[in-house]
Amino acid sequence: MYNQPIFLQPEFKERLWGGTKLKEIFNYEIPSETTGECWGISGHSNGSNQIKNGPLQGKTLAEAWSNHRELFANEEGDEFPLLVKILDSKKDLSVQVHPDDEYARKIENETYGKTECWYVIDCEEGAEIIFGHNANSKEELATMIENGQWEDLLHRIAVKPGDFYYVPSGTIHAIGEGIQILETQQSSDITYRVYDYDRTDKDGQKRELHLDRSLDVTNVPHVNPFLEREHQLEAGVRTEMLVEEAYFTVHHLSLDGKSNPITYENYQLFSVLDGEGNITTGEGIFPFTKGDHFIIPATVESYTIEGKASLITSHSNK
Q1: For a pLDDT cut of 90, what percent of the chain falls above it?
Q2: Of which family is this protein a member (predicted)?
């Protein structure tokens, strides 16, 4: 029986809006000074993580999902359902929106749409996100987009470290410059750009917009999701519920000491935002540190977590 954490090698993505904070904050070896994304836990075909330890060392998470489903509580589905990223926005991301599952399958021939959520790790003073819009009908939304009424249309929110946002499919959104977030999302890479600030690439070309599909999938009117960030303290762990919804449940863990033994029938995803510690299972002691990403498989009957650290943990609700 597989009785240890599965540690994953991050995948990095260069982006027009990326920077160097992934190296500065997490000491990652990034490919360039425009590195926008660390895919920390991914089985997606555009970047499946390699396993760093244990019997499956050298295999990818996608291969583990296909061939060792017992590690994932025999969950159904052809693809690993979640994707966990850390993003560094040196510049503004495009204003965008994502489809739901039904639209993704019908129009894109993809398994999943994209519902996501953001935990703000750090940001510059005065940093903002775009979250939602002010149109009251599809017709008004189309008119305001056509007329370029971006200041009237888009809803801007100032952010600070520790903020959390749940972003269901159909929500117009953008991460502003100077923000680093951890994003937990469905395993999808479908993005429809609504507005890109008329930016051009190195060849002087504007990036493609997807206005028809954006209008198809955008929720109108926009409604802010209600979140109640409840927390509990047990032994050395303060657990804060961030969101529990159809696709995933996400918690923030503040670790200061040693937990009681944890038993859980499902598999759990962990990303270490700060600090260090150990996971202890029946097979041994496994250290973790800032920037690590790992999975506790369903085959681990019991474990303890110990140290001083800040972590985001999640699991699938499929």
Answers
A1: 94
A2: Belongs to the mannose-6-phosphate isomerase type 1 family.
Tell me which residue of 41, 190, 185 sits closest to 119, measured CA to CA: 185
Could you list the active site residues?
193
- Reply yes or no on whether the pLDDT at 183 is more than 80: yes
Structure tokens at 311: 């972590």
pLDDT, tens only, 226-242: 888 999 999 999 999 99
Q: Residues near 223 by Cβ (< 8 Å), separated by ≥ 6?
A: none
Q: Classify the C-alpha dihedral 221-229-292-284 as positive or negative.
A: negative
Phi/psi at 317 (5° precision): -115, 20
Domains of the chain: 6-217 (2.60.120.10), 231-316 (2.60.120.10)
Burial class (CB in 10 A: 0-12, 13-18, 19+), 75: middle
Helices (H) and strands (E) in the chain, counts: 6, 20
Which one-letter DSSP state was computed for residue 69?
G
Burial (0-12, 13-18, 19+ Cβ within 10 Å), 119: buried
Name the DSSP class of 27.
-
The DSSP output letter for 303 is: B
Q: What are 282-317's pLDDT values in tens digits? A: 999 999 999 999 999 999 999 999 999 999 999 999
pLDDT of residue 226: 87
Residue 211, judged by CB atoms within 10 A of its CB (0-12, 13-18, 19+), counts as middle
End-to-end CA distance of the chain: 24
